[in-house]
Amino acid sequence: MTRCKICRSPYREQIDQMLVDNRAYNEIIASFPELCLNKVNLSNHKRHIYPSMIEEARRKYDSHVNELASKVLDEITALDSVIAKAYSIFSTFDFETKPRVVEVWTNTLLRAIKLKNEILALKSPQNEFVKILENLWKEDGNEEGRI
Question: Is 4 exposed, middle or buried (0-12, 13-18, 19+ CB in 10 A)?
Fold first, then answer.
């Protein structure tokens, strides 16, 4: 059985969420006066829950990224289809007799190609996530006890 006062508390989830939200220790302590918490309690609790919270956040984040990646792949497939169709239509028109139609399909083709290239050039958000988590859990040592 854990000796941590916060882990044994019925308010653990709320306290954990307040820690994740980077709330000041003083605010957390004031929110739960019946627990008689102090900054050391909060600091120790944060230190031992850190690995499990990071793992949970990473799992949720990876799931979200995979979902978004699937949607992006669907959009790229749709763009490939538009590009192929625009190119086939574009190549069948006579430039001399229907210049406006050729212009419209050329613009459609170029916009689809540009959009596909912009999507494919997006950076992976993995590094940003790691930076956010590191900043969230880094002890800054200020008087308010922020995490």
Answer: middle
Mean pLDDT (the chain) is 78
pTM: 0.42
Judge whether 38 lies within some domain.
yes
Structural domain for 97, as ranges:
12-137
Q: Residue 35 gets which letter from DSSP? A: G
- Rounded Cα distance between 90 and 85, Å, is 8
User: What is the widest separation between alpha-carbon atoms in the chain?
Assistant: 85
Tens of pLDDT, residue by residue over 114-126, are 887 777 776 555 5
Model pLDDT, residue 128: 53
Cα dihedral 92→95→97→99 (10° resolution):
110
With 0-12 / 13-18 / 19 or more C-beta atoms within 10 angstroms meaning exposed / middle / buried, residue 135 is: exposed
What domain count does the chain have? 1
